[in-house]
């Protein structure tokens, strides 16, 4: 029983990282219908630059971390403006290839600048301290991550539902032309979307890199986050978070009780099963084409 | 044996009754028109016949075969073809290939024969040649020579509609469902279309089910007419009879009645 | 109007004497290739030929049928492992083992096609991605397949011919590649291919014309997997050694980018895309050896970046080319080709 | 008959197109130069190992600066294969058939190495010191392949022996990467424990892609192990230790040579690496050995790029090529591959900055005729990433 509880907690801890990446994926997909494979590398670049300022120039945390988030926002906007906006006749495949191309460029850039050696981000709290509740352990870093997930999810949810920009984003997604006719500058909305998403991704990147940093560190969280987002329906923020926690918990239980070897595959097997039953994920209505 | 019959057909989407207890019969060789205001459920009716939607109640009988549980491709195999309200052509194929797809059920070339189409004497080569000759007849019939090898996405709207008709004809149907064949056409194109529809009936002996908003055309070419509104049958009968029906007059000829006052 | 039409001209392969001439010229060049170039280039040609087969197979699925797949490395692995296992453990001859394992890949393609019937866009992407990763991971963990130690290809001989060198294998490989390319082209031009395209362009209309969606979508998956499986089986003999990490997600992505960069829905595009990207994939490692440019890049890295990571410039270039092609020519290399052809036809106006 | 005609045709064609049929001396050797090839991942997931090739490069440059070997300069050709066997094969073929290498040295990775092994062996090209401690290089032994890296089994045995006999540990567990590298470790540990009449209390596999090791640590914790062997990548070793710390599980950790670069490990693990015992195959970075000091001064300080680090992976590139250089030296002026092989076979207790290296005349039934180093030494990480030497060079068969 204790083990079971511990596994659930572990699963939620792992799920938190996926959730952050999933949230970032969903924000972009919601407004622009681009499955953004660059997400991970956008966070990677922000994290490495943060590392550079912290480690090499000794800038204090309270300056660097906010600056990193601002940088991430700008990076997202710039990528949208310079690359994505230029795409003619965007279709989903073309977008996948473009974002993968971007991913390679950013990854290449980071590896070129910083080399392939493992590094670790100096971080205000030690990632290896833990809190004991009853007899269940959870590390402070994971608590922080979970807190970030809740904060960002509610924040984004409220923002999208009630703020002017959020409503404009929704309008852009549902009917681009109509939104433009109503005076919404949809181009800017898209740009802002990328910025926000990049900021969320950057949070994930910073948290992950406090353990081990290397140029490939964002691949697994990205794929799991993507999987979680798809499981939650790709357009629903709570759906993505729910999917992420589900994945984390299932992975941990599977690893604990059945086979630790196939732990990392089981997530995808479950996704395929879920999609067989609900082709548009758990939280989205299946869209049927009309003739 | 009735040629085509619909009995007590009903379907609803999320509580909204899109079709409610629709009944009618179509005789072989006639042009049967379905009219009604937008959103009356005409296209939904076609979708039910086609097998795209599954009706909740009722039967659809075609030459004594039940259609309501059949997949669209099975329905097509029985000899029912259709055109669409908003053109559903294969945009990146040329006209010839679009119409060739209509021959799908008449061709036998599979993966194997297709892969080994070495020369015109191979199985696939022979078959392609033979059926292209058939398609050419349809192209002649509908006067599509000029656009034979053009990609359909680039064709004018009116021509696309004709290509769609050609594609449906290529399946050699016994029953042809035309969903607003004249929508968005200019009067010249409309004249041609009316002419062809009549020819299809007279020369090819194909039974036609027609949805159309152009009253003049409908009254002109239909043998019988079904009027539906809000998913219910208003009336059916010969054009003359239908024209005199008070509700039809209210809906189409614009008496001083509000649309919202329907039951 | 010429009333005596030969309808075969619509589907025949050599639409004109010029095409015939170039085809023969190409064949002659391919036949002479191993004698014109060093053995290393024969190896490169073999590598490219493998990717050409995969790209064509993937294009049948992605370009013609309009489905996404991020899991083709899985079929590739099934083909490679199937061939080697059938040859070493069941002692079947190569020419039996290869199609058999490709059929196994096709079977898996069919199975993957079933859930894919209802999926599209990102949902299909993640489902296929999951498939590819699962195949690799399972193979890597089963001792029967050699685990992470991989498998070595046995000596290859067909009848009296021993195909032990790159050059010998080249002829077998290139023959298969040409046959498969032509077969794909023929399939696309006839009933099955038309049905694929119809499904991509307007699936409901296709269905109402009598195309069985379930059958043709799964067929497309199976056919695509078959091509990829054949390529996998051949790849095992190009490399003469396989291990699970060869068949990663990265490879699936590379396959997909070949197809998209080459041009969706174009066989020649796939060939061009596969040639360009796999050639770059092999050759970009030499970027620092280019006179002047290499030196300049090194100096640049010394002063602004790190010399230890300088090789990563190849990723930047690779990504850049992918993006530029997609941004400025959504139809890929095939689109560029069409445009150039038009330009020359109109020249000098 | 056909075959013969084909061969004639081939030869004629080859001559017509000017193939270099080497008539003089040995391929890759001229009066002034010896060409040596090497691959190593500079990009991709294994890029951290790329420094091996760069270490070799600096080492060769040092030798050349000292006047070369017997008047010949060593020309080092290295290329990036991104750990993709297809690229390894491409690069090896290009260099071998283009410029013509006399021999190959090091070469990171089991998979890339296995992909080119047959090619090199069929062409009878010597290959010294593959940088991976795999049994594949010596089972069966190849005449032209000289392994240097001590087998992972040896390290496992040494660590287990130390943990049980010196530290008095009762329950040994292992976390291993689910591949050749990890499985060799499991095998070695199990064999040694069997000798001591014990068993592994837990064997926990880690996948290269895993980013969450909690289930793994939980298994270790449930097994109540008091010593845990880490047979993983650097990243996973750090994650295992970190997760264990967070879950308040503190056994003695013992790691392979892969994670024996203490300064780096200390910095990544934020100090948690302190107290970990590691096996290693070479001197320590701060070793007082004169040879080590010379390498640091003459090779690293002069020829390494400014952001290079004098770490284990870097001078591993020197370790793997020391026997090659020694072999070439012993050949004297008359350098051929056959002579090189026979000189290599005469190496006996040759020691550079690693353990002692010996080869025996080729014997197809004796794998150890081609396994050079069988020695390992154990270190303990202490404050500041420095190392405390626990044992001398131990020989384990």
Structure, described:
The complex is a heterotetramer of chains A (291), B (263), C (349) and D (397). With 263 residues, chain B is an alpha/beta fold. In chain B, 38% of the residues lie in helices and 22% in strands. Chain B contains 10 helices and 10 strands. Chain B has a 6-stranded mixed β-sheet with strand order 6-7-8-3-9-10, sandwiched between helices. In chain B, helix 3 packs parallel to helix 6 (157-170). Chain C has one domain (34-346): ABC transporter involved in vitamin B12 uptake, BtuC (Orthogonal Bundle), CATH 1.10.3470. Chain C is 71% helix and 2% strand. Chain C has a two-stranded antiparallel sheet. In chain C, strands 2-3 form a two-stranded antiparallel ribbon. In chain C, helix 3 (72-88) packs parallel to helix 5. Chain C starts with 16 loop residues before the first helix and ends with a helix. The relative contact order of chain C is 0.15. The model of chain C has no long low-confidence stretch (mean pLDDT 89). By secondary structure, chain D is of the alpha/beta class. Chain D folds into 2 domains: 33-150 and 287-302 and 309-362, Rossmann fold (3-Layer(aba) Sandwich), CATH 3.40.50; 152-280 and 378-395, 3-Layer(aba) Sandwich (Rossmann fold). Chain D has helices at residues 2-16, 51-65, 85-98, 110-122, 152-166, 180-195, 214-223, 234-246, 262-268, 290-303, 312-331, 337-345, and strands spanning 33-40, 73-80, 103-105, 127-128, 145-146, 172-177, 200-206, 227-231, 252-255, 277-280, 375-381, 387-389, 394-395. In chain D, the strands form 2 sheets. In chain D, strands 6, 7, 8, 9, 10, 11, 12 and 13 form an 8-stranded mixed β-sheet that branches. Chain D has a 5-stranded parallel β-sheet with strand order 2-1-3-4-5, with helices on both faces. In chain D, helix 8 links the parallel strand 8 and strand 9. Mean pLDDT of chain D is 86; it is low at 10-23. Classes of the chains: A mainly alpha (291), B alpha/beta (263), C mainly alpha (349), D alpha/beta (397).
Brief characterization of the structure:
The complex is a heterotetramer of chains A (291), B (263), C (349) and D (397). With 291 residues, chain A is mainly α.
């Amino acid at each position: 029983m204790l083990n079971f509880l511990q596994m659930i907690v572990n699963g939620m801890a792992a799920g938190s990282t996926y959730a952050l990446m999933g949230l970032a994926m969903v924000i972009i997909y919601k407004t622009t219908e681009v499955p953004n494979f660059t997400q991970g590398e956008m966070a990677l670049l922000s994290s490495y630059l943060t590392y550079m300022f912290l480690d090499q120039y000794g800038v204090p945390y309270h300056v660097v971390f906010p600056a990193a988030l601002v940088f991430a926002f700008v990076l997202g906007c710039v990528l949208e403006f310079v690359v994505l906006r230029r795409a003619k006749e965007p279709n989903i495949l073309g977008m996948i290839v473009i974002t993968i191309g971007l991913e390679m460029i950013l990854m290449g850039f980071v590896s070129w600048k910083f080399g392939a050696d493992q590094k670790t981000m100096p971080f205000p709290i030690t990632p290896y301290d833990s809190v004991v509740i009853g007899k269940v352990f959870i590390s402070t870093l994971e608590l922080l991550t979970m807190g970030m997930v809740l904060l960002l999810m509610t924040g984004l949810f409220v923002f999208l539902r009630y703020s002017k920009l959020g409503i404009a984003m929704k309008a852009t997604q549902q009917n681009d032309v109509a939104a433009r006719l109503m005076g919404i500058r949809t181009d800017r909305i898209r740009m802002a979307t990328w910025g926000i998403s990049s900021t969320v991704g950057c949070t994930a990147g910073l948290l992950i890199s406090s353990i081990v940093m290397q140029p490939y560190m964002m691949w697994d969280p990205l794929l799991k986050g993507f999987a979680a987002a798809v499981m939650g329906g790709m357009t629903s923020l709570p759906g993505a978070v729910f999917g992420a926690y589900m994945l984390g918990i299932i992975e941990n239980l599977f690893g604990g009780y059945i086979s630790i070897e196939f732990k990392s595959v089981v997530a995808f097997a479950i996704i395929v099963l879920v999609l067989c039953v609900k082709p548009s994920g758990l939280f989205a209505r299946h869209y049927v084409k009309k003739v | 044996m009735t040629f085509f019959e619909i009995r007590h057909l009903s379907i609803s989407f999320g509580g909204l009754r899109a079709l409610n207890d629709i009944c009618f019969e179509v005789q072989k060789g006639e042009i049967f028109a379905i009219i009604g205001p937008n959103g009356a459920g005409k296209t939904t009716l076609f979708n039910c016949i086609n097998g795209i939607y599954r009706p909740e109640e009722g039967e659809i009988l075609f030459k004594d075969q039940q259609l309501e549980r059949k997949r669209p491709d099975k329905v097509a195999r029985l000899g029912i073809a259709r055109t669409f309200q908003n053109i559903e052509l294969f945009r990146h194929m040329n006209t010839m290939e679009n119409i060739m797809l209509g021959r799908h059920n008449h061709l036998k070339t599979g993966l194997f024969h297709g892969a080994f189409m070495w020369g015109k004497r191979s199985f696939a080569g022979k078959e392609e040649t033979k059926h292209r000759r058939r398609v050419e007849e349809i192209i002649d019939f509908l006067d599509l020579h000029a656009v034979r090898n053009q990609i359909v996405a680039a064709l004018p709207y009116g021509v696309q509609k004709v290509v769609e008709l050609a594609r449906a004809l290529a399946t050699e149907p016994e029953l042809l469902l035309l969903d607003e064949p004249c929508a968005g056409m200019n009067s010249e194109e409309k004249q041609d279309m009316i002419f062809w529809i009549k020819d299809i009936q007279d020369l090819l002996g194909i039974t036609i089910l027609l949805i159309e908003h152009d009253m003049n055309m409908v009254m002109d070419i239909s043998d019988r007419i079904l009027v539906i509104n809000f998913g219910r049958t208003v009336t059916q009968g010969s054009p003359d009879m239908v024209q005199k029906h008070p509700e039809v007059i209210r809906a189409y000829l614009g008496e001083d009645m509000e649309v919202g006052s329907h039951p | 109007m010429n009333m005596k039409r030969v309808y075969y001209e619509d589907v025949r392969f050599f639409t004109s004497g010029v095409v015939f001439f170039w085809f023969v010229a190409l064949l002659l060049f391919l036949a002479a290739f191993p004698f014109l170039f060093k053995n290393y280039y024969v190896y490169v040609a073999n590598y490219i030929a493998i990717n050409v087969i995969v790209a064509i197979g993937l294009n049948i699925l992605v370009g013609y049928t309009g489905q996404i797949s991020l899991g083709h490395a899985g079929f590739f692995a099934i083909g490679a492992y199937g061939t080697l296992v059938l040859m070493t453990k069941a002692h079947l001859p190569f020419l039996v083992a290869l199609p058999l394992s490709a059929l196994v890949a096709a079977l898996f393609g069919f199975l993957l096609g079933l859930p894919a019937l209802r999926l599209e866009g990102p949902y299909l992407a993640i489902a296929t991605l999951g498939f590819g990763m699962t195949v690799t991971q399972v193979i890597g963990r089963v001792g029967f397949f050699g685990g992470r130690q991989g498998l070595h290809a046995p000596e290859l001989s067909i009848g009296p011919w021993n195909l032990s060198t790159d050059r010998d294998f080249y002829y077998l490989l290139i023959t298969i590649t040409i046959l498969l390319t032509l077969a794909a082209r023929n399939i696309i031009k006839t009933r099955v291919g038309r049905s694929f395209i119809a499904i991509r362009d307007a699936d409901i209309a296709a269905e109402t014309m009598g195309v069985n969606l379930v059958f043709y979508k799964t067929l497309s998956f199976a056919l695509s997997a078959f091509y990829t499986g054949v390529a996998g089986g051949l790849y095992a003999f190009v490399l003469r050694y396989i291990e699970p990490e060869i068949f990663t997600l990265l490879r699936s992505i590379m396959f997909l980018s070949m197809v998209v960069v080459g041009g969706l829905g174009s066989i020649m595009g796939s060939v061009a895309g596969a040639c360009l990207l796999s050639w770059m994939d092999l050759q970009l490692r030499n970027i620092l050896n280019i006179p002047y440019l290499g030196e300049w890049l090194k100096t640049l890295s010394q002063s602004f970046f790190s010399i230890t990571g300088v090789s990563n410039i190849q990723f930047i270039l690779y990504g850049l080319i992918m993006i530029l092609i997609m941004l400025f020519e959504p139809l890929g290399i095939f689109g560029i080709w069409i445009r150039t052809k038009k330009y020359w036809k109109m020249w000098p106006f | 008959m056909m075959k013969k005609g084909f061969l004639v045709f081939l030869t004629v064609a080859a001559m017509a197109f000017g193939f270099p049929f080497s008539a003089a001396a040995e391929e890759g050797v001229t009066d002034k130069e010896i060409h040596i090839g090497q691959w190593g991942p500079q990009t991709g997931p294994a890029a951290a190992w790329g420094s091996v090739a760069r270490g070799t490069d600096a080492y060769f440059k040092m030798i050349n600066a000292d006047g070369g070997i017997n008047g010949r300069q060593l020309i080092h050709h290295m290329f990036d294969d991104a750990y993709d066997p297809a690229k390894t094969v491409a690069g090896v073929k290009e260099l071998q058939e283009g410029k013509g290498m006399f021999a190959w040295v090091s070469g990171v990775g089991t998979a890339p190495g296995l992909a080119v092994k047959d090619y090199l062996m069929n062409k009878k090209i010597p290959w010294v010191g593959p940088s991976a401690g795999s049994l594949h290089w010596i089972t069966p032994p190849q005449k032209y392949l000289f392994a240097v890296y001590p087998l992972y089994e040896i390290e496992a045995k040494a660590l287990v022996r130390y943990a049980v006999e010196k530290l008095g540990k009762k329950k040994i567990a292992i976390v291993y990467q689910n591949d050749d590298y990890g499985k060799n470790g499991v095998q070695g540990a199990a064999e040694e424990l069997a000798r001591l009449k014990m068993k592994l209390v837990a064997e926990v596999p880690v996948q290269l892609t895993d980013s969450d090791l909690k289930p793994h640590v939980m298994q270790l914790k449930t097994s109540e192990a008091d010593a845990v062997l880490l047979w993983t990548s650097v990243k996973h070793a750090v994650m295992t230790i970190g997760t264990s710390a967070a879950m308040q599980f503190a056994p003695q950790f013992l790691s392979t040579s892969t994670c024996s670069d203490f300064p780096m490990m200390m910095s990544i693990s934020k100090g948690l690496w302190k107290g970990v015992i590691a096996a290693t195959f070479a001197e320590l970075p701060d070793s007082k050995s004169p040879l080590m000091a010379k390498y640091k001064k003459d090779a690293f300080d002069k020829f390494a790029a400014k952001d290079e680090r004098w770490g284990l992976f870097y001078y591993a590139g020197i370790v793997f090529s020391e026997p090659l250089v020694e072999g070439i030296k012993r050949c004297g002026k008359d350098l051929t591959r056959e002579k090189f092989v026979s000189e290599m076979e005469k190496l006996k207790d040759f020691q550079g900055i690693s353990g002692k290296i010996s080869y025996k005349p080729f014997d197809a039934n004796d794998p150890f005729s081609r396994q050079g180093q069988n020695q390992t030494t154990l270190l303990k990480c202490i404050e500041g990433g420095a190392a405390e030497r626990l044992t001398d060079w131990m020989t384990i068969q």
